[in-house]
C-alpha cells in the first residue's frame, strides 16, 4: 500500500468518526434500542447517547470477549483477560445496559427472554453471527466440545487453547474454514499462523493441515510467504480441488473426512458455515441467504422499516465482515438514526475497512478498502485501498504488527470506553 493511499484512507477513516452538530432536544430525542454489545453495537450505543438520545443496549453476556486478537491467546502470547471487556464505560456515558437476550421484535417493541419489553422509535441490530451446526454432517453444539470452532470469543477459545497445550508433540492440528461469506475472512489463516508460532517453539514435530471449502482466501500470497519464512514445512493448505472440502466429521474418533481422504486429528478446529444471529431471523430482516440486506445510506433494513442492521449480520455491498467494518458502520448508522429522529435526511457516507493480520507477534500485514454509497448500495472505491507488499523487509512486517496492536487498543477503547 502506498503512502498516498494510506493518507487517503486515514482521511476517510476520520470522516467516519462524525460528531453531531448539537445534542438532541427534548422534541428530537428518540428511544433507540441496540441489540448486541460487540464492536458495532457498543460503538453505536455510545455515539447515539452522546447525541442525546435515550439508548438501551441489550447484551446477553456481562462482558464481551473479542474474536479479533483471540488468535493471540491461541498463539500463547496473550491472556483471555486481554481480550475481555465490560460495559461500565458505556453506562457512565448514559447508555442503559440491560443484560438479557432479545427473543422477539414486534410493533415497535423488543421482547426479552425474561419477559421484559423495551419500546423503541428506532431499533439497531448488531447481533453477530449464528453458527450453522447442521450444515456439516457429524457436527453439532455437543461436537464443538471436542472439535471447537472458537469462532465466538470465550469458552471455545479457552477450550481450543487447552487442547493445543495438552496435545503431544507430533500431533496433527486440522483447521476447517467454511465457504464465503463468514465472519473475518482472513481469520482461519491468521489462526494457523499463530498456532504454528506456538507449536514451533513448544511442539516442533507437529503439523497443521488447513482443509478449505474455498479455492482461494484473503491475503493468500502474504500468508503463504509468511508460512514459508517462519514455519517451513509445518502448515499445509488444501483447497477443494485438491480434496480439501470437509464432507463430515466424527468427534468420537477425532476424524475429519473429505471428498478424497480421512484425517485423524489430535486437535480439530471446525469452523461451520454461518448466518445472521437468530434475532435477525425473528425480526424478519434476514432474507433467504440468512443475511440482512440493508441500505448503504442508513443501514436500515431493506425488508423492515425502522430497523437498522450493522456488523457481521448485514450484507453491506462490497464491505467484508470484520470488526473494523462493524465499527465504521456503527458510526454511519448512528449519524443516520440521529438525522431521521430529527426529521432530517441522512447524508451519503464514506466508509473504511482495514484488516490487520499477524503471522507472528512481530510479523504483520494489512489489506484495506474504502467504500462509497450510490443508489442505496455500497461499492468499493477504486484505487483507495491496497495490500501490504510481498517481499517486504522485517522492519515493515514489525511495524505492521505494531499497527495491528495500536488498532486493537483504539477500537476497543472506542467501543467499550
Automatic annotation (TrEMBL):
<dbReference type="InterPro" id="IPR037092">
    <property type="entry name" value="FlavoCytC_S_DH_flav-bd_sf"/>
</dbReference>
<dbReference type="Pfam" id="PF07992">
    <property type="entry name" value="Pyr_redox_2"/>
</dbReference>
<feature type="domain" description="Sulfide dehydrogenase [flavocytochrome c] flavoprotein chain central">
    <location>
        <begin position="157"/>
        <end position="272"/>
    </location>
</feature>
<dbReference type="GO" id="GO:0050660">
    <property type="term" value="F:flavin adenine dinucleotide binding"/>
</dbReference>
<dbReference type="GO" id="GO:0016491">
    <property type="term" value="F:oxidoreductase activity"/>
</dbReference>
<feature type="domain" description="FAD/NAD(P)-binding">
    <location>
        <begin position="31"/>
        <end position="143"/>
    </location>
</feature>
<keyword id="KW-0285">Flavoprotein</keyword>
<dbReference type="InterPro" id="IPR052541">
    <property type="entry name" value="SQRD"/>
</dbReference>
<dbReference type="InterPro" id="IPR049386">
    <property type="entry name" value="FCSD_central"/>
</dbReference>
<keyword id="KW-0274">FAD</keyword>
<dbReference type="InterPro" id="IPR015323">
    <property type="entry name" value="FlavoCytC_S_DH_flav-bd"/>
</dbReference>
<dbReference type="InterPro" id="IPR036188">
    <property type="entry name" value="FAD/NAD-bd_sf"/>
</dbReference>
<dbReference type="Pfam" id="PF21706">
    <property type="entry name" value="FCSD_central"/>
</dbReference>
<feature type="domain" description="Flavocytochrome c sulphide dehydrogenase flavin-binding">
    <location>
        <begin position="348"/>
        <end position="416"/>
    </location>
</feature>
<dbReference type="InterPro" id="IPR023753">
    <property type="entry name" value="FAD/NAD-binding_dom"/>
</dbReference>
<dbReference type="InterPro" id="IPR006311">
    <property type="entry name" value="TAT_signal"/>
</dbReference>
<dbReference type="InterPro" id="IPR016156">
    <property type="entry name" value="FAD/NAD-linked_Rdtase_dimer_sf"/>
</dbReference>
<protein>
    <submittedName>
        <fullName>Sulfide dehydrogenase (Flavocytochrome c), flavoprotein subunit</fullName>
    </submittedName>
</protein>
<dbReference type="Pfam" id="PF09242">
    <property type="entry name" value="FCSD-flav_bind"/>
</dbReference>
Amino acid at each position: 500500500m502506498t503512502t498516498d493511499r494510506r493518507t487517503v484512507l486515514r482521511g476517510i477513516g476520520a470522516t467516519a468518526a462524525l460528531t453531531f452538530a448539537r445534542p438532541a432536544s427534548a422534541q428530537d430525542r428518540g428511544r433507540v434500542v441496540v441489540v448486541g454489545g460487540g464492536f458495532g453495537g457498543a460503538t453505536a450505543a455510545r455515539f447515539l447517547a452522546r447525541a442525546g438520545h435515550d439508548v438501551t443496549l441489550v447484551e446477553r453476556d456481562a462482558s464481551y470477549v473479542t474474536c479479533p486478537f483471540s488468535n493471540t491467546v491461541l498463539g500463547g502470547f496473550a491472556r483471555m483477560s486481554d481480550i475481555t471487556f465490560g460495559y461500565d464505560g458505556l453506562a457512565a456515558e448514559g447508555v442503559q445496559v440491560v443484560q438479557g437476550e432479545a427473543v422477539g421484535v414486534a410493533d415497535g417493541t423488543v421482547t426479552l427472554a425474561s419477559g421484559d419489553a423495551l419500546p423503541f422509535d428506532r431499533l439497531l441490530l448488531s447481533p453477530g453471527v449464528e453458527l450453522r451446526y447442521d450444515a456439516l454432517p457429524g457436527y453439532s453444539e455437543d461436537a464443538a466440545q471436542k472439535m471447537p470452532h472458537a469462532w465466538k470469543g470465550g469458552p471455545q477459545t479457552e477450550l481450543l487453547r487447552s487442547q493445543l497445550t495438552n496435545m503431544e508433540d507430533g500431533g496433527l492440528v486440522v483447521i476447517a474454514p467454511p465457504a464465503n461469506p463468514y465472519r473475518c475472512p482472513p481469520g482461519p489463516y491468521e489462526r494457523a499462523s499463530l498456532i504454528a508460532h506456538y507449536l514451533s517453539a513448544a511442539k516442533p514435530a507437529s503439523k497443521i493441515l488447513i482443509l478449505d471449502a474455498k479455492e482461494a482466501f484473503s491475503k493468500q500470497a502474504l500468508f503463504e510467504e509468511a508460512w514459508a519464512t517462519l514455519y517451513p514445512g509445518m502448515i499445509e493448505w488444501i483447497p477443494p480441488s485438491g480434496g480439501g472440502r470437509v464432507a463430515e466429521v466424527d468427534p468420537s474418533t477425532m476424524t475429519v473426512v473429505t471428498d478424497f481422504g480421512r484425517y485423524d486429528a489430535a486437535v480439530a478446529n471446525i469452523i461451520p458455515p454461518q448466518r445472521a444471529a437468530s434475532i435477525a431471523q425473528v425480526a424478519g430482516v434476514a432474507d433467504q441467504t440468512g443475511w440482512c440486506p440493508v441500505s448503504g445510506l442508513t443501514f436500515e433494513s431493506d425488508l423492515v422499516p425502522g430497523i437498522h442492521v450493522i456488523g457481521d449480520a448485514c450484507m453491506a455491498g462490497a464491505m467484508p465482515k470484520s470488526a473494523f467494518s462493524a465499527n465504521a458502520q456503527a458510526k454511519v448508522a448512528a449519524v443516520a438514526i440521529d438525522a431521521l429522529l430529527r426529521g432530517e435526511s441522512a447524508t451519503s457516507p464514506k466508509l473504511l475497512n482495514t484488516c490487520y493480520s499477524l503471522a507472528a507477534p512481530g510479523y504483520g500485514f494489512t489489506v484495506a478498502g474504502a467504500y462509497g454509497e450510490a443508489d442505496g448500495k455500497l461499492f468499493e472505491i477504486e484505487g483507495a485501498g491496497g495490500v501490504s507488499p510481498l517481499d517486504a523487509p522485517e522492519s515493515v512486517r514489525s511495524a505492521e504488527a505494531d499497527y495491528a496492536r495500536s488498532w486493537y487498543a483504539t477500537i476497543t477503547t472506542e467501543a467499550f470506553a
